């Protein structure tokens, strides 16, 4: 489901020719509104779910691999395991990578830097997503001092 929704959304966004909405490389008001939508939906809602999906996948993958090597299993069930443990997850990873890449390119072209925002008592970095290793809190969160540096351009 997430793969299909991300692919559909990314395709639609690409068709909108949004780079033209940044005259002289500066974000128009519409692009700034779109950035807010991105933050509210992708960063705050979808990215945490994606992290959970990644963790589940990386936890279950060794079990899937072990099960698929059991001689008692039918070839159809082995194919089912391969489909759900590797092929579907690869498609999901590709979809989320393309979606993130679209936003990174748009933000770069429109001179919008990824920002941090407060989530509870922790600052969260926008676009801090990785797909090749399990989501670990240290990959997404920075302490207040580092966040302050980023917000004020003292990277």
Poorly predicted spans: 121-155
**Helicity range of the residues?**
55-70%
Main sheet: strand order: 1-2-3
The overall pLDDT average reads 76
Beta-strand content bin: 5-15%
Note the main sheet: 3 strands, antiparallel
Structural class from helices and strands? mainly alpha
Protein described:
The protein is mainly alpha-helical. It is built from four helices and three strands, in the order αααβββα. It has a three-stranded antiparallel beta sheet with strand order 1-2-3. Helix 1 packs parallel to helix 3 and helix 2 packs antiparallel against helix 3. The chain is elongated. Mean pLDDT is 76; it is low at 121-155.
Summary?
With 155 residues, the protein is mainly α. The protein is built from four helices and three strands; from the N terminus they run αααβββα.
Can you tag this structure with a few keywords?
about 160 residues, mainly alpha, 4 helices, elongated, disordered C terminus
Topology of this protein?
Layout: H1 2-15, H2 29-68, H3 75-109, E1 116-119, E2 122-125, E3 141-142, H4 144-151
Antiparallel strand pairs: 1-2, 2-3
Helix pairs in contact: 1-3, 2-3
